């Protein structure tokens, strides 16, 4: 007896896998999505890194200011820990050019001498300018003074970066979203403050002289 052969069903089996074409289409779709979101993810990470760096720079500036205020920072080989200027327009003082003349915050500890290296993307350097309307030979810690502080990244001094700028040069403050990782030539932080004299009367007279000139508070 000959059995009749039934024609095979043309319906796809539920267990059938994807075809090569379907796999390629899925890969293309995933690739397009990754390409679209990759820049956003990179910018987000860069912004967080820059925000953290500015936070550290702010702490460094405050530590430097408190060190001067408490006289914990003593004059060294380069003299007083801040540079002297004859103008009360501290914002006009120039940006630094020599990393070795600045106060170093050695974060990565790459150098046993605790110096900041221009190839470090972690170390911070602090620049300070002071004004007290008195001769440069006068001890500013005894008279009080106006102070401006700028904090730069150590690798801002690397070869090829170019001339550093101040916030006034840039006509705008450095923002955490500036080019993702920020402008390497700009200060991370710039702030101005007053440092009082060791005696109250001297601090008052010095402050009046800096504000009103030779007439003081009269």
How would you portray this structure in words?
The chain is an alpha+beta fold and 218 residues long. It has one domain. The protein is 33% helix and 13% strand. The protein is built from four helices and five strands; from the N terminus they run αβββαβαβα. It has helices spanning 20-69, 140-143, 167-170, 200-212, and strands at 83-84, 103-105, 124-131, 145-153, 189-195. Strands 1, 2, 3, 4 and 5 form a five-stranded mixed β-sheet that branches. The radius of gyration is 30 Å and the shape is elongated. The N and C termini lie far apart (131 Å). 25% of the residues are buried. The model is unreliable at 172-180 (pLDDT under 50).
Mean pLDDT: 79
- As residue ranges, the low-confidence spans are 172-180
Q: Over the alpha carbons, how many angstroms does the gyration radius reach?
A: 30 Å
Structural class: alpha+beta
- How would you describe the shape? elongated
Question: How many structural units, i.e. domains?
Answer: 1
Order of helices and strands: HEEEHEHEH
Determine the N-to-C terminus distance.
131 Å
- Tally the beta strands: 5
Total helix count?
4
Major sheet details:
5 strands, mixed
SS strand fraction: 5-15%
Q: Quaternary status of these chains? A: single chain
Keywords:
218 residues; alpha+beta; five-stranded mixed sheet; elongated
Quickly describe the structure:
This protein is an alpha+beta fold and 218 residues long. The protein is built from 4 helices and 5 strands.
């Amino acid at each position: 007896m000959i059995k009749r052969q039934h024609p095979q069903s043309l319906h796809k089996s539920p267990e059938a896998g994807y075809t090569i074409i379907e796999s390629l289409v899925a890969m293309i779709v995933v690739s397009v999505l990754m390409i679209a979101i990759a820049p956003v993810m990179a910018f987000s990470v860069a912004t967080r890194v820059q925000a953290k760096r500015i936070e550290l720079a702010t702490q460094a500036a405050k530590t430097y200011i408190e060190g001067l205020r408490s006289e914990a920072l003593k004059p060294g080989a380069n003299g007083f820990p801040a540079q002297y200027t004859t103008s009360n327009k501290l914002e006009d003082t120039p940006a630094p050019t020599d990393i070795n003349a600045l106060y170093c915050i050695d974060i990565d500890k790459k150098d046993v001498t605790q110096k900041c290296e221009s190839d470090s993307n972690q170390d911070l350097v602090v620049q300070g300018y002071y004004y007290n309307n008195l001769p440069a030979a006068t001890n500013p810690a005894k008279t009080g003074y106006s102070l401006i502080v700028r904090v730069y990244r150590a690798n801002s001094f690397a070869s090829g970066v170019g001339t550093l700028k101040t916030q006034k040069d840039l006509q705008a403050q450095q923002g955490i979203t500036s080019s993702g990782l920020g402008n390497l030539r700009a200060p991370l932080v710039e702030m101005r403050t007053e440092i009082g004299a060791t005696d109250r009367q001297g601090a008052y007279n010095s402050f009046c002289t800096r504000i009103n000139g030779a007439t003081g508070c009269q």
